[in-house]
Amino acid sequence: MDTRADLSNIAGQQQDWPGAVGHLDPRPDHGEESYVGRGRLAGKRAVITGGDSGIGRACAVAFAKEGADLVVAHLPEEQADADETVDFARSVGRQAHSVPGDLRTWEANKNLADGAVELLGGLDVLVCNAAYQMTHDELSDFSPEQIRRTFETNVFSPFWLTEALAPQLRGGGCVVVTTSVQAYSPSQHLLDYAATKAALNNLVVNLAQELGPTGIRVNAVAPGPIWTPLIPATMPAEKVHGFGSDTPLGRAGHPVEVASAFVFLASDEASFVSGSVLGVTGGKPVF
To answer: Any catalytic annotation for residue 132?
Structure first.
């Protein structure tokens, strides 16, 4: 029996950016109880950016249950949620570390890469999940500062992290990037965010070609509408109301429903999968 909260009729609500899990109504399922691990990532070491909440937390929960040790990267403002994520990973016997920082500069990404390798003793999986968005209805409302922040967080950081960690990932490691259905069917009020996700799709394909000969796989997961703090923290209440109800399945997704795609791509089961984008969209097309 499915005990997850019903997400077919989410009420209009708002939070201050960057949002917090505890203020979401209903509370999303990150997999602490529902996800069943099968040892598919046993012995692997992973960095997950944006791992404090939402898809990132669900990935951290699933990775820990599958046997991986973790570094969870997050904004300093998200420390409370990150602590919950790390505490859960440790509760199932995994090594886990919280690393706060803003990944909008080369220096911050290099520091995260070096720190993660030191904390974990190496690296096998990089999950580039951190993202920034803010919605507006008019082109003139997208400020230069927002455009820079969106591209720095969503595109520059995955590029710089992959560049910094490629030497550690050679010979069997992998990179998994969070893109979005927005790359295929962009919403007007997410103009810059959608553009970054389309850029990431191309980046994944190019990196797979570039890094394949070194034994590194690069793939992406393109989620559809997933219920996370990012939604009420970046959208007006009227857009949050009924969020995800326009999918063929008629609802938004829980973060745990995306996590299995990341587990597959990070596992040895996907040893011949590279340069692919796996859609988890509730039926929305990704082509």
So the answer is: no
